[in-house]
Design goal:
The complex is a heterodimer of chains A (280) and B (371). Chain A contains ten helices and two strands; from the N terminus they run αααααββααααα. Chain A has helices spanning 15-37, 48-64, 68-84, 89-97, 104-114, 131-157, 160-166, 174-202, 211-242, 259-278; strands at 119-122, 128-130. Chain B has a two-stranded antiparallel sheet. The model of chain B is unreliable at 258-269, 282-349 and 365-371 (pLDDT under 50). Classes of the chains: A mainly alpha (280), B mainly alpha (371).
């Protein structure tokens, strides 16, 4: 949803530039998320386990709702939470709704015309917009927008490591959580390596390469990256062994539910159940 | 059902449907990640149930066959999949597309482990980057982390079994595997989209989730994927395998080394999974529907226990399999329907947690204790 559509870059820029832009965009995004997650806001103070479960609850309420108004109300609820958590509202709204038209918007568009139902508007060329069509398109847009907002809000207010540890409450096996954490850490290493590889190449290029040459470069970069990944993985293994890793991951469980967490949990459960009730 | 298709065909110019559907799907090809909101919660739940055996199998393989050494291997490979999904692949004509990397993961790690690696990349994308839904994770993992790797691996194996590591047939097998794998995955995604409007709509026929029926969803997803995204997937897989043959053939042999060898982990168990996958391919459309009926029945049981004995007759009237979930929404007795609905949300969460927990227990039974 959040990936930058290719059309935003100049058509003339090669894949090297585009990939570099995407990589930097990703690094930027996660730096920003970490920054907001460290702000002293409302959601930042809550137990991550509670937040993970609450996120799933709200997503379920959005998903179960048969009423547009209820979904809109849930979106407002999310906006209020974002505001209370010092997430910049302009960014929060724009991040979801600016790029939506490129994906879900265009997917939803034909539904306006092809869903059978009472006609709202007659257009030239025998096109008609139906009431059911408008409703179904709105359902899709609102649901996707609200769900994405909720997921983004979780990450903007919770450090990734805490999200991971909190997944333990959903009975995700410890070894999977360990791998998730390592993956996340090495994504940044690999992103930096890839960025460097492309940058060194770009700095030696005077113009865009011809297509076949570009594809060969891409394959070589991907292949080299794969080789490096495999090498790093065996080095990491040696490092883990030398530090005494014996097949059983251990985590420090420092989470503690406080009175405020129970209170917040009760509120989320109430809001979700009310939404499910009214949206049935 | 038939009348729905007929009225659809009558009321809209066909060319318009196809043009827009293709256009929309062309945009989808750059990101096959299904966001939350396209699938009903029931479908999402069923997709989790379908993908779970593969997760359990992967984690089990990880625990038994793969020693601690493979923890960083999978982590690095998941990170690699993530980064690979970010590469803009140059296409003829000046545009770019993205690859999923699931086929490559299957060729290097074997499909069982590839499921875990790609799933992990998808989980990070869903939670951290809002790319693909959280409730839709089951569906996304099923399409991209199960169907894609298994199908791609089967094709690759068909071409490269008993061939030397530097055989050119591996390149061909890898390319074809990526292409077939992603196309089949797109078909599955299309089926998941396509059954939504039949199963989930309001009383006046407004689709609640993805609005296009199978007749539009399948061609709209499969054709552009076969022409663009699958070509990208197959192309990048073939190119990387070709590069590895030149520069690092040992990487192609990881899957055969003892530690992650699929054969070593008991071919019988593998065959069971293969048969399971084949069965899934055959029954998925039905499989997705049948639990829909079960859901309806569950609601009825729940309500009958509250003293609503007339419901079975209502169910009998709506005996069509397709409209089975309707009674849940259309019941005239409001108070009890509310209760059923709220209960369903609570039970839904409970079921997910219980099922995950049960499977985790299963997966951990044989866990060798580190002394």
């Amino acid at each position: 949803m959040n990936s930058v559509p290719a059309s935003r870059h100049s058509r003339r820029s090669g894949f090297v530039e585009r990939t570099l832009v995407d990589i930097n965009h990703t690094l930027e995004q996660s730096l920003f998320a970490e920054q907001t997650a460290r702000q002293p806001g409302l959601l930042q103070r809550l137990d991550p386990r509670l937040k993970v479960i609450a996120t799933v609850l709200v997503l379920l309420a959005v998903s179960l709702s048969h009423s547009l108004i209820v979904i809109a109300a849930l979106y407002l609820f999310i906006l209020v939470l974002a505001l209370a958590s010092r997430v910049p509202l302009g960014f929060f709204v724009a991040r979801v709704w600016v790029f939506m038209p490129f994906f879900t918007g265009l997917v939803a568009l034909p539904a306006l015309f092809i869903t059978p139902g009472p006609v709202v508007l007659n257009l030239p060329f025998g096109l008609v917009i139906t009431r059911t069509g408008v409703q179904t398109a709105l359902f899709l847009l609102l649901r996707v927008g609200t769900s994405v907002s909720m997921a983004i809000l979780l990450v903007l207010t919770t450090l990734w490591n805490s999200v991971l540890k909190a997944l333990g409450v959903l009975r995700v096996p410890a070894v999977v959580i360990l791998i998730l954490g390592m993956t996340y850490r090495y994504i940044y290493l690999l992103l930096n390596i890839t960025g460097d590889m492309f940058l060194t190449r770009k700095s030696r290029l005077l113009r865009r390469l011809p297509g076949p040459e570009e594809r060969r470069l891409l394959a070589a970069t991907a292949g080299t990256l794969l080789g490096k990944s495999l090498r790093v993985s065996s080095e990491v293994y040696l490092a883990m062994q030398s530090r005494g890793f014996r097949n059983t991951p251990r985590t420090l469980d420092t989470f503690r539910m406080r009175r405020m967490d129970y209170f917040a949990g009760a509120i989320v459960v109430m809001v979700s159940l009310t939404a499910i009730w009214f949206g049935r | 059902m038939k009348t729905f298709f007929k009225s659809l065909a009558r009321e809209t110019p066909r060319s318009l449907i196809i043009y827009y559907a293709l256009f929309a799907a062309w945009l989808l090809t750059t990101a096959m990640h299904i966001p939350d909101g396209y699938l009903s919660p029931i479908t999402s739940l069923i997709m989790f149930v379908l993908v779970l055996p593969f997760w359990v199998f992967g984690v089990r393989q990880l625990r038994e066959k793969m020693t601690a050494k493979n923890v960083p291997l999978i982590a690095l490979f998941a990170a690699f999949s993530f980064v690979i999904m970010m590469f803009n692949v140059p296409l003829p004509g000046g545009t770019t597309g993205h690859a999923v990397g699931g086929a490559l993961a299957a060729i290097i790690l074997g499909p069982g482990i590839a499921t875990i690696a790609v799933s992990i990349a998808l989980v990070i994308q869903a939670f951290f980057f809002g790319d693909g839904g959280i409730l839709a994770l089951g569906a996304n993992c099923f399409n991209m982390a199960v169907v894609l790797p298994y199908v791609a691996f089967a094709v690759y194996q068909a071409f490269s079994r008993n061939q030397p590591l530097t055989s050119k047939r591996r390149i061909l097998g890898a390319g074809l595997g990526g292409w077939v794998g992603l196309t089949v995955a797109a078909f599955f995604a299309a089926v998941e989209f396509g059954i939504q409007p039949m199963l989930f709509h309001t009383a006046d026929g407004t689709p609640l989730y993805a609005p296009y029926p199978l007749s539009i969803a399948i061609p709209a997803m499969v054709i552009p994927h076969a022409l663009i995204a699958s070509v990208v997937e197959g192309g990048i897989t073939a190119l990387v395998v070709a590069y590895l043959i030149r520069a690092n053939p040992a990487a192609l042999d990881i899957v055969n080394q003892e530690q992650i060898s699929p054969e070593a982990s008991g071919f019988a168990r593998w065959r069971v999974l293969w048969i399971f996958l084949a069965a899934l391919i055959v029954i998925v459309p039905i499989g997705l529907l049948a639990p829909g009926t079960a859901w309806g029945e569950w609601g009825t049981d729940e309500l009958t226990s509250l003293g609503l004995a007339f419901i079975p007759q209502g169910m009998a009237k709506l005996s069509g399999l397709w409209s089975a979930p309707l009674p849940d929404y259309d019941l005239p007795s409001l108070g009890n329907a509310n209760l059923g609905y709220i209960l369903s949300a609570a039970v839904g969460i409970l079921v997910i947690v219980t099922v995950v927990w049960l499977f985790t227990m299963l997966a951990t039974v044989k866990k060798p204790e580190a002394k």
